[in-house]
Specification:
The complex is a heterodimer of chains A (about 210) and B (about 650). Chain A has about 210 residues and is an all-alpha fold. Chain A is built from eight helices and no strands. Chain A is elongated. The chains are: A mainly alpha (about 210), B mainly alpha (about 650). At the A-B interface, α1, α3 and α7 of A face α6, α7, α8, β1 and α20 of B. The complex binds protoporphyrin IX containing FE and copper (II) ion. The site of copper (II) ion (CU) has 5 residues of chain B, from α8. Chain A: It is a multi-pass membrane protein.
Chain lengths: ~210, ~650
């Protein structure tokens, strides 16, 4: 592999995108796709649990009572936008514009923080009226599913900050490009998971 | 922990003595530096494989001692060797250790040692991650084993069903140890799955098309695919149960809307595929061994691949056969019964392919072949009793009886352990450069296998006579005494067989001749074209693969120099640098886990912070490779007589 890598770096192939040019780096992208499959299954199990338990409210607050339409709509809007700005950072990377990459990434981080802020606020409001995760099986499942997504987002934010530092320090090269590409894959993935949360948890929660 | 009785005190004392002994010996021989530089920080897949192997054998010993304690307790009616609580703890640790801390690392040992060499790769796809996987497994296993010394072992069975495992019914730290130890090592297993899928898909030497891959590599791919599909379910079920116990949620509780059945479903979504995770690589080993020792190409290669992949898929759709009796209804039970039986078809295909390969071959009965031959009758009986269990109405009769115990031991020992031992014997010369003594090995084989039948055949009958699993004692008038006594004798014979293996290893370490050929079995696949032990960069020049069983074909044609001699093609080689961080990260996980076991949150936070720090440092790391100059490679190769 490294011999192969050597051959390729020696006469770098400029037709392929930067993050795929070095096989040593591009295999990490493959690895990351496989990782996302496992993460998808993890969420799949949490969704299944939620679907089984969502009516088990034990006389406590129901989805209908709890979910606040403007709140989760704003969260959705912010997260989808951040996914878009994240995509723009990849685009800028492909064009070799480091400053732009950093600007879009910073914006993505800020939007991510806003999302987390809203989510914390939502959770705090629920807890304040006694809708804690200890109250009923429904709430246990709700907080765990949405909270797991939220902690993924938080990790994503830290990760993007680390990527930003590296791009600032080392510029755009095969390695940093690959890292940026992967963190964006992760971010899009969280977006997709959120779309499921939005429909399966929130929308069907307020409708039903 | 002070009122647990003399058995525990004696073992505690022994553990302390062993630890003091090891620490003392390392200090006296001034080997700490060596241990750290060569092993604890290594990212070399071959060394990681050897560490997995050692760990698996040690855990086999621990699990085996547990088994003997259980069997001693059951040897006669009304026995008081162990009390009920102890019995519960021991069957729990026995089951958990055997499946998660013996079988899994044993597979990972073989994956690591064999796969990159078989596909002509210089390394696994993610060597650093590979080291992390190992240390997560290791520290997860240590955390689990610590329960024995510190606080008490889990006692709700290796399946740990709620509501029995909810805090109210099971307050002690034992269950926490189970949840966290298994969780930590499970994360490592997922990483291993990802790593080997990427390795097999992306790191094959030029020309190594998928349909030219050796069957062991195929079985690894199948096993890893199941790992990544199944283990997340385990992680979720354990995490949710942990939340119930630590945070007070109500996923699986009896009150406030919890649903224990949800755990049972999630657990078996992992648990059933798990048995295929462990058995597929054994199938891979048998395929390699049969082909090598009959000197024939494997019969029906494509059907072997197809059946491996079919098992991979079907294994995912049978989990509910573990609770036919729990009220799912006839339609659901029918679906899962039929799916379970369907697995028998591809499995049968494989067995016939092995038999056809052997047919008219000149079989050399070496140790790997012996364990393979021993496997076939086991699998025939175990498979037949498995179909009996898969028939849902029948299962109402033998559910949770000794019939089941006999069945799954027949599969797990006769299928998995036989396979792993066959693999160990087969690749031992590749790992260490010498063979294991055949004479002692044959003693081990016969004693272990005869013991096996004496131990488990009576249990089928006991099952029919109504003896349930997880019973710590039984009254005389049930009439189960004599069969149980026979079974216990068998268990002890297996223990003696294991001791022969230990003796064999120790003896061979000092007395066996070095193998200078690199190919002591006259084998077929690529790994045997390398010297033993393999230099750390594996292939001086990555070979080009032209067909299946390339090494054999090259030997037939007399063109082995195309695969071995690495003339002026030798270039400098980039290798990953050793790192202490995976070890430290495992340790940090251990600290965090230990904190959670006893609800000492400060410790838990310190541990988690350590984990986070390790990850951040890794993210910011720039240079994790070094270069071996071409000259150095040439020198190594010519010292090995290959230039
Ligand atoms: C080496 C010889 C072995 C002997 C003599 C042995 C014996 C036993 C005994 C006596 C039990 C308890 C049965 C009961 O009371 O319900 C048991 C349970 C079990 N064994 Fe083994 N065993 C052996 C090897 C293995 C191996 C290699 C594996 C797995 C790879 C394994 C997996 C299990 C499991 C999963 C359980 C169920 C534990 C539970 O009920 O929670 N055993 N074994
Ligand atoms: Cu099963």
């Amino acid at each position: 592999m490294s011999a192969l890598q050597h051959a390729v770096t020696a006469h770098a192939d400029t037709d392929t995108p930067l993050e795929y040019q070095n096989p040593h780096e591009s295999v990490k992208i493959t690895g990351f796709w496989i990782f996302m499959a496992t993460d998808m299954l993890l969420f799949g199990c949490l969704f299944a649990t939620y679907l089984v338990l969502r009516t088990h409210t034990d006389g406590g607050p129901t989805a209908h009572h709890l979910f606040d339409i403007p709140g989760f709509t704003a969260e959705t809007f912010i997260l989808l936008t951040s996914s878009f700005t994240g995509g723009l950072s990849t685009l800028a990377m492909r064009l070799g514009k480091r400053k732009q990459v950093m600007a879009w990434l910073t914006l993505t981080i800020l939007l991510g923080l806003a999302f987390i802020g809203l989510e914390v606020q939502e959770f705090a409001a629920d807890v304040a009226i006694g809708a804690t995760m200890q109250r009923s099986a429904f709430l246990s499942a709700f907080f765990t599913l949405v909270g797991t997504h939220g902690s993924h987002v938080s990790i994503g934010i830290v990760w993007m900050v680390l990527t930003l530092i590296q791009i600032a320090r080392r510029g755009l090269n095969q390695k940093t490009a690959r890292k940026l590409f992967i963190v964006n894959l992760y971010w899009h993935f969280l977006d997709v998971v959120w779309v499921f949360i939005f429909t399966i948890v929130y929308l069907s929660g307020v409708v039903m | 922990m002070w009122n647990e009785g003399y058995l525990i005190w004696i073992s505690d004392a022994l553990i302390v003595l062993v630890v003091v002994g090891i620490v003392g010996a390392l200090t006296y021989l001034k080997k700490w530096r060596w241990l750290w530089d060569n092993w604890l920080t290594t990212v070399d897949h071959k060394k990681i494989g050897i560490m997995y192997l050692i760990a698996a054998l040690l855990m086999f010993f621990r699990g085996g001692v547990d088994a003997l304690l259980l069997r001693t307790q059951l040897a006669q009616p009304g026995e008081h060797f162990l009390d009920a609580e102890h019995y519960d703890q021991i069957f729990t640790t026995h089951g958990t250790i055997m499946i998660l801390f013996m079988a899994m690392p044993f597979l990972f040992a073989l994956f690591n040692i064999v796969v990159p060499l078989q596909i002509g790769a210089r390394d696994v796809a993610f060597p650093y991650l590979n080291a992390i996987s190992f240390w997560l497994f290791f520290f997860g296993a240590m955390l689990f084993n610590l329960s024995f010394v510190f606080g008490g072992s889990p006692d709700a069975g290796w399946t740990s069903y709620p509501p029995l495992t909810e805090l109210g019914f099971d307050p002690g730290p034992g269950e926490n140890y189970y949840l966290l130890g298994v969780q930590i090592s499970g994360i490592g297993s997922i990483a291993t799955g990802i790593n080997f899928i990427a390795t097999i898909l992306k790191m094959r030497a030029p020309g190594m098309k998928l349909m030219r891959m050796p069957l062991f590599t195929w079985s690894t791919l199948g096993s890893c695919l199941i790992i990544i599909f199944a283990f997340p379910a385990l992680s979720v079920s354990l995490a949710l149960l942990m939340l119930d116990r630590v945070v007070g949620t109500h996923f699986f509780t009896m009150m406030h809307g919890g649903n224990p059945m949800m755990f049972i479903n999630l657990f078996w979504v992992w648990g059933h595929p798990e048995v295929y995770i462990v058995v597929l690589p054994a199938f891979g080993v048998y395929s390699e061994v049969v082909a090598t020792f009959t000197r024939k190409r494997i019969f029906g290669y494509s059907s072997m691949v197809a059946s491996l992949m079919l098992i991979t898929v079907i294994s995912y759709f049978v989990w509910a056969h573990h609770f036919f009796t729990m009220g799912a209804g006839a339609d659901v039970n029918t679906f899962f019964a039929v799916a379970s039986m369907a697995v028998g078809i591809p499995t049968g295909v494989k067995v016939f392919n092995w038999l056809f390969t052997m047919f008219r071959g000149r079989i050399r009965v070496t140790l790997p072949m012996l364990w393979t031959l021993g496997f076939i009758p086991n699998f025939a009986i175990g498979g037949a009793t498995g179909i009996m269990l898969a028939a849902a109405p029948g299962d109402y009769q033998y559910h949770n009886s000794y019939f089941l115990i006999a069945h799954f031991h027949q599969m797990l020992i006769g299928g998995v352990v036989n396979g792993m031992l066959a693999g160990m014997y087969y690749w031992w010369p590749k790992m260490f450069g010498f063979r294991l003594n055949e004479r002692l090995g044959k003693w081990a084989f016969w004693i272990f296998n005869i013991g096996f039948y004496i131990c488990f055949l009576p249990q089928y009958a006991l099952g029919f006579e109504g003896m349930q699993r997880r019973m710590y004692t039984y009254p005389t008038d049930m009439g189960w005494g004599s069969l149980n006594f026979v079974s216990t004798i068998g268990a002890y014979l297996m223990g003696v067989g294991f001791l022969f293996i230990v003796w064999q290893v120790l003896y061979s370490l000092f007395h066996m001749e070095r193998d200078t050929t690199g190919d002591p079995w006259d084998a077929r696949t690529l790994e045997w074209s390398l010297p033993s032990p393999v230099p750390h960069y594996n292939f001086a020049v990555i070979p080009t693969i032209t067909e299946r069983d390339v090494w054999w074909a090259a030997k037939q044609r007399g063109t082995t120099d195309l695969l071995t001699t690495s003339t002026e093609d030798i270039k400098e080689i980039h290798m990953p640098k050793n790192s202490g961080r995976p070890f430290i990260m495992g340790l940090a996980f251990f600290v965090a886990g230990f904190g959670f076991v006893f609800n000492w949150y400060i410790l838990a936070v310190i541990g988690l912070a350590g984990v986070a720090l390790c990850m951040i440092l890794r993210a910011l790391e720039d240079q994790d490779e070094y270069v071996i100059p071409a000259e150095e490679v040439r020198e190594t190769e010519s010292a090995l007589g290959r230039l």
